[in-house]
## 1
Amino acid sequence: MVNKDQVKGVANQAKGAVKEAAGKVTGNKKTEAEGKTEKLAGKVQKGYGDAKEKVKKAL
């Protein structure tokens, strides 16, 4: 089973990776940093979703 937090987390990771790469290519440090932040936020959100699934399965 996959929940919405897992899906949104993966989507945010992908969006962040694209933004980070765009920042690197253009030399825009702000965009690169924003991309890294979005990627990290996506990882956290996916981890939260994973934890919710483990709790569901345990119950």
Note: Residues 13 and 39 are 4 Å apart (CA to CA).
## 2
Amino acid sequence: MLVITRKPGEGFLIGDDITVRILEDNDGRIRVGIEAPKEKKIYREEVYERIRQENKHASQWQADDWRSLAQQLVKPPKKASSSGTD
């Protein structure tokens, strides 16, 4: 892990296209600004972990689980009843 000491107003670069800047230090709470291309996804750590866990759970579903879910969501069409009279 790289540890960098920065003061408010100072920043650092990650690669050629991401700038991280310290905006303010207020009683131990640091505000950080990140400039990055729109196609870069930036998540808070706890949000990313929740997404990762949900993806892991979804990938553990078996084919039978999907079939069962599909059967619950898609009901077969009702057959037309014939009265037997002409």
Note: The radius of gyration is 27 Å.
## 3
Amino acid sequence: MEITGNSAFYAGLGAIQNGQNRFDQAASQVANLSAERAATSQSSDFQAERLRSVDRSQQLDLATASVEQALAAHQVELGAKVAKASDEMLGRIIDTWA
């Protein structure tokens, strides 16, 4: 029996890695939005009034990034379950053949 990189175990590990990357990107986006918001909070009244519409879009982006983080966390969790199930199945197959 040959175990290759195409097995379910490696698919689970790939899902974990992709989920971590997705979470990192969303966290980076949240950090960038927070930094931008802090910079605009020190502007004049005129600039603040003009930027209110931008602030609304940033709130939407912040919500989107938060949802992305939640989805990424689920992706990592499911990837771990796939890897664990594959590992358990491989152990059962080896026990059966031994």
Note: The chain has a mean pLDDT of 78.
## 4
Amino acid sequence: MILMKFIGSHYLLFAALALAVWYGGVLFTFYRNEAKKLYAQQFPKPETPLPTVLADDEEFDLMGAPAEEYGVSTVLAHEVRFMQRKTMIPDEEMQGLIPDVLEEIKKVIQTVEAEEGDKADFISLFKLITVKYPRLAESKHLPDINDWLREHCPFGLDEDELAGLWA
């Protein structure tokens, strides 16, 4: 066990440091704004602006424009084009009726799968789509929609059943 002897000078040094820390904390806590003002008066900031090199019509932007993610581009609504994999359907039709019908068919298929329905349930729900979209019965894209139905329907549909869906 080591005993330390404190002499008077050590005690006075410790007391002076403790008082300095105490009064510094009081000054910082209660007189912070006054200390900032006093500091600002003694050390004013330079008021000369930083030189910049810009053209007359350019606006200064420190950060610049945000970059888009790789592979993402911003386009206007009339520039958006949709195309099916197998066939070349005109853009005007792809932005309207055909995608709406395909979404309705997807919902019917999901409902039949979720409720564990059979082919009769699918056909009865599909009749609601044919009532909603009667133009498709004579559409030139009906074979493409039927091909899509053959690929995505959970049970097989032959040609007679597909023709009966649209009748």
Note: The mean pLDDT is 78.
